[in-house]
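#lab-general

N.A. 3:47 PM
ok so I finally got the sequence cleaned up, no stray characters, all 229 residues accounted for. can someone with queue access submit it? mine expired

B.Y. 3:52 PM
send it over

N.A. 3:53 PM
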Amino acid sequence: MMRGFWVGLLILSLTGCAQKLRRPFDIKNLAKSDMDLITDIHIAEIRQITERLLIKLYKRNPRELKKVPGMTIDQRVHQLIAEQRPHSGFRELGGMDGIALLPLAFSTEFEGDRVFALMAGVTGMISASYNHQTEFFLLDDIDQQKLYNCARNLEKIAWLLNNRRDDQGHLLLLSNGMNANGVPNYSYERLLSQIILIQDMMALMVADSTNRNINQVVHSMASMTFFPI
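B.Y. 4:20 PM
back already:
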């Protein structure tokens, strides 16, 4: 039953990819397999989704941006999405990057820009799951377990956003909630779910194409331990 569910999602994904693959010829694509092209498209899609999530989180939590005088949302987008990431990590975040930042983002003792810490952690973790590549070619390899572990970590992040609170009982970061008319807003969770779906489908496709298994894992949502990438 579950296998049929994933197959259906995979077909939908490939249908969307097929539409996006119809673009002007580029000679470098001769060095790419169909799987490479699909991977490139999924990476580009994730980058667009994470940019939307970053912007939405700052608009919902303007106090976080104000912790760095003169900082703008566009500058944060440039730091995390449009620019080459610093190899030594982000100085503002103690030289850390990627998955190491996720516990910091949800620490009650952290006094810095929590949105930046979270999204630097998310974007760095996703990048690591693709070997920090934005393009794939015939001889490039990708690890299905990294993709799967990344999806599970994103599930934990979605849970922590809705449940992690400070000592006064306030959410550390605002995301889902009710609008002025009392209508639930789950747009943040939907964006995370889209990335999770892409990562899970990529893990399944890679595992199938390489005849490698995915080790299924279970973890506590409330813990601050994340699966390695």
